[in-house]
Write a structure and sequence with these properties.
The structure holds two protein chains of two kinds. Chain A is mainly alpha-helical. Chain A has 15 helices and four strands. The longest helix of chain A has 27 residues. Chain A starts with a helix and ends with a helix. The N and C termini of chain B lie far apart (83 Å).
């Protein structure tokens, strides 16, 4: 077994593009679920709106890169408003139902045959990332320390990505330690109490939904740009559930929870996957084939999430005392 | 000097009610809250149907009534937590019907809840700070620059500390509100409501679930509200408490106000007795009637014995 290969791949995944994308998706969810208590099960929809906003503007309409970025962000804001206006006055569970459906609607719309000329159908869109890579300051080649390394394109995506993650974390830290964040956390605890103290709960929930949605759209940009292509089926509901796993692993309502959660999630996922593949190839494990490794890996993710919720529901950064307060 | 102020406020409030008729909807000299024809139906059930009611400024008014009389529903209508089907009510002359709950609170009419709503995973201090109005840092963009709201935050913290000291919660300021006892949560909720700077405080069963040791202290705090010039309207079941602190009592039954009056005499009002015990309850027997009934029963028994023999 090539342990070197296993650990190299795992560490690359832990700081790689997937980790960045999921970190952003989970930071958005943290604003929704962790701080405000909004059960958004449609984070994949926000990523899709960001990715397709960017790709469609450039690839279909031939507009400049920055217009594409602006369209993606504006799209996320509009998507949040559309979701929020009918549901935020209702109980939390309704938002969960509406968001999971809305995210699927987005995916099915961009996938539809009728809109193939605009969104590219199941094949998706490509040829929209040239401007992004034209800004790449890294000259072609491999960069890295020891065996861990990335090519120049990935390096550019990662640089932009981790800067965005850092900026998002600073922003979240600032607002959540302000009176604004205090209102959000209070809404998570009890809406009616907050209302009785003269705060417009609906407006705050809407702001939180928009803010978290825009951060999710940033993840969508990176998802599309890192692949230089975007397909509708990349944005299925599993993104949302992985993002929740990442968030709970790291610790909800903690600034760095989603970031560390994303890194550890991808590190472990690839560590176990590559480890199993190596073990099968070297006949250490003989009862499964290499093709079955992927499925078993995801089963292990599920088991891991269940164990996490049972034994450490507060995640890595969370405070056990806070969780205990729930069991009143 | 303080004691003098206490007696004058109480005396002033009582003097206002002196000689008022005990009819429901009786007009008061200086009402802060005026309610007209408020109706709330749940399907076929009319939960609230209040013809007219005025709440006197600067007094402590108790709202009592048997279970299911619609007291809490009525509270919810007035504070915007539920929408009334019909009616109108004015606070300081301002129409409140249809106004959302948060704007009602901003007008200076702040309520607490029957089931205490402490914000568990916020500290006691954060609970208190949340109550303050007009906070600059509650805007998303201004929140990003602490310099804009830091000074105001310090002022709010100072005010909160004074209130916490008064309510004997100062030692708990950094504890999660969820770790407080039931009585302490009631105290926190009342203190938090005061952070809003209300004119009218509406307390929904302030004594429910509070241990007797804390009851006296809570009563004292409610009386203090009047001394500071606030008006108090509260729902309560404990008649001892009602008699102790209220200046005026409003009785509700089956959704309507059936009587009003001073706390000493209201419970002997026949309408109130009917409402609590039912209209066809047994009136207490006079000595003669009791004697008569006893003789009848004995005669019956004797005749039965004779028959058997």
């Amino acid at each position: 077994m090539d342990w070197n290969l296993i650990f190299t791949r795992a560490i690359e995944a832990g700081i790689g593009t997937e980790a960045v994308i999921y970190a952003l998706a989970a930071i958005g969810l943290n604003i929704h679920f962790g701080y405000t208590g909004l059960l958004n099960f449609g984070q994949a929809g926000f990523l899709a709106v960001g990715a397709y906003g960017l790709a469609t503007t450039i690839a279909t309409f031939g507009l400049p890169f920055w217009v594409g970025i602006a369209t993606g962000i504006a799209g996320a804001v509009v998507f949040a408003l559309l979701l929020g206006i009918p549901t935020l006055r209702l109980r939390a569970d309704y938002l969960a139902i509406v968001t999971i459906a809305a995210a699927e609607i987005v995916r099915l719309v961009v996938r539809s045959v009728a809109l193939r000329d605009t969104f590219g159908g199941t094949d998706g869109l490509e040829a929209f990332s040239d401007d992004f890579y034209a800004m790449n300051p890294y000259s072609p080649g491999e960069y890295g320390i020891g065996p861990i390394g990335f090519d120049h394109r990935t390096m550019w995506v990662l640089t932009v990505g981790w800067v965005l993650v850092a900026l998002a974390c600073v922003l979240v830290y600032l607002v959540m330690n302000s009176p604004w964040g205090r209102v959000l956390k209070a809404i998570r605890e009890d809406e009616d109490a907050v209302r009785s103290l003269g705060k417009n709960v609906f407006a705050y929930k809407m702001q939180a939904l928009v803010f978290g949605g825009v951060v999710g759209a940033l993840g969508g940009f990176l998802f599309a740009l890192s692949r230089a292509a975007t397909q509708p089926d990349l944005f299925s509901t599993e993104i949302t559930f992985f993002a929740y796993t990442v968030l709970i692993l790291g610790g909800a309502a903690r600034v760095l929870g989603p970031v560390v959660g994303a890194a550890i999630f991808w590190l472990l996922l690839i560590l176990v996957k590559t480890g199993m593949e190596e073990a099968v190839n070297n006949h250490v494990i003989t009862f499964i084939s290499v093709n079955q490794v992927g499925s078993i890996n995801y089963m292990l993710v599920g088991v891991g999430l269940i164990l996490l919720l049972i034994y450490r529901p507060q995640g890595i950064f969370g405070d056990k005392r806070e969780i205990a307060l729930d069991a009143r | 000097m303080h004691a003098e102020a206490v007696t004058t406020r109480k005396a002033a409030a009582l003097a206002v009610f002196e000689g008022l008729p005990t009819e429901p909807g009786v007009p008061k000299p200086d009402p802060i809250l005026v309610i007209d024809k408020v109706v709330r139906r749940f399907g076929g059930l009319t939960a609230v149907d209040v013809e007219h009611l005025e709440i006197q400024r600067g007094s402590i008014t108790a709202l009592i009534g048997p279970n299911g009389a619609g007291k809490t529903t009525f509270f919810n209508q007035l504070t915007g937590f539920d929408t009334a089907d019909e009616g109108s009510w004015t606070f300081n002359g301002k129409q409140l019907k249809g106004m959302p709950a948060h704007r009602v609170a901003r007008q200076g009419m702040v309520r607490t809840f029957q089931l205490t709503k402490a914000l568990s995973r916020l500290t006691v201090m954060e609970n208190m700070r949340l109550g303050a109005q007009g906070q600059r840092g509650e805007n998303f963009f201004r929140a990003l620059i602490p310099g804009i709201w830091r000074r105001q935050e310090n002022e709010i913290t100072e005010r909160a500390e004074e209130l916490l000291t008064r309510f004997k919660l100062a030692a708990k300021r950094e504890d999660f509100a969820g770790s407080l006892s039931g009585g302490q949560r009631k105290l926190l909720e009342m203190a938090r409501a005061l952070m809003v700077g209300p004119e009218l405080v509406m307390l929904d069963e302030p004594m429910a679930g509070v241990n007797p040791a804390l009851t006296q202290s809570l009563l004292g705090h409610v009386k203090d509200l009047r001394e500071e010039g606030m008006t108090v309207l509260f729902v309560e079941h404990d008649m001892d408490m009602v008699r102790d602190i209220s200046d005026w009592v409003v009785v509700m039954a089956q959704g309507s106000v059936i009587a009003e009056g001073p706390p000493d005499t209201i419970m002997s009002d026949p309408r109130v007795v009917d409402a609590y015990l039912g209209a066809h309850h047994d009136a207490p027997l006079s000595a003669e009637e009791a004697e008569e009934q006893l003789q009848e029963a004995e005669a019956e028994l004797e005749s039965e014995i004779e028959e058997k023999a």
